[in-house]
Amino acid sequence: MIRVVLADDQAVVRAGFRFLLEQAEDIEVVAEAADGPTAVELVRRHAPDVVCMDVRMPGGDGLAATREIVAAGGARPAVLVITTFDLDEYVFGALEAGASGFVLKDCEPEELIDAVRRLADGQGLIDQAVTHRVITEFARRTAPPAAPTGADLAAPLTAREAEIVRRLARGLSNAEIARELVVETSTVKSHLGRAMAKIGTRDRLQTVVWAYQNGLAPR
């Protein structure tokens, strides 16, 4: 079962998300929070796989909560930001804080369920339209490093790992990367897994963020 904590200040929204998610036989909502601090405490208590996090909540927003959850280390859950506006300032803050994906509050039920499953599987959401827009704007706002060069910053990675991370930052799937490099998809997945372990990212979205922050991604 995929264990989920819901964090939203509106009880009716939480009830709706709970109903939608629990239609899936492999998802269980283990707790609900109306503010960020409560969400952090519930994560400690229940050790969920995914937190569905609203970023705007009175009494403690989801931005600070996301940062605290991600900074805790260990088997921390993936944070799925559920927002009303895809290019909201809070979204960029959550991205920098370590969020693993984004969906809009008016998304289709299947999209929400798929997002939770993918985050639980460590994939992140870099191929959703909302995340493409967020990443593009994030890249525009993030100043490129002055020194060292992108190649130097990629030093922990092998040449093939760096190639794969660059293509990942372009929004390519594993299959698309495999076609470009003329290798098996399983090979791409293996190289990407090693790259993520080296740079300390837990999912594809945060690997893309790392690539932009460290001068390895196209601008």
Automatic annotation (TrEMBL):
Q: Which GO terms describe its molecular function?
A: DNA binding
Q: Could you tell me the superkingdom of the organism this chain comes from?
A: Bacteria
Domain HTH luxR-type: residue ranges: 150-215
Q: Which GO terms describe its biological process?
A: phosphorelay signal transduction system; regulation of DNA-templated transcription
**Segments passing through the bilayer:** none
* InterPro entries noted in UniProt: CheY-like_superfamily, NreC/VraR/RcsB-like_REC, Sig_transdc_resp-reg_receiver, Tscrpt_reg_LuxR_C, WalR-like
Family annotation (PANTHER family): TRANSCRIPTIONAL REGULATORY PROTEIN NARL-RELATED (PTHR43214:SF24), TWO-COMPONENT RESPONSE REGULATOR (PTHR43214)
The protein's name is: DNA-binding response regulator
- Residues modified as 4-aspartylphosphate are D54
Keyword tags: DNA-binding, Phosphoprotein, Transcription, Transcription regulation
- Name the species this protein comes from: Promicromonospora citrea
Q: Which residues form the Response regulatory domain?
A: 3-120
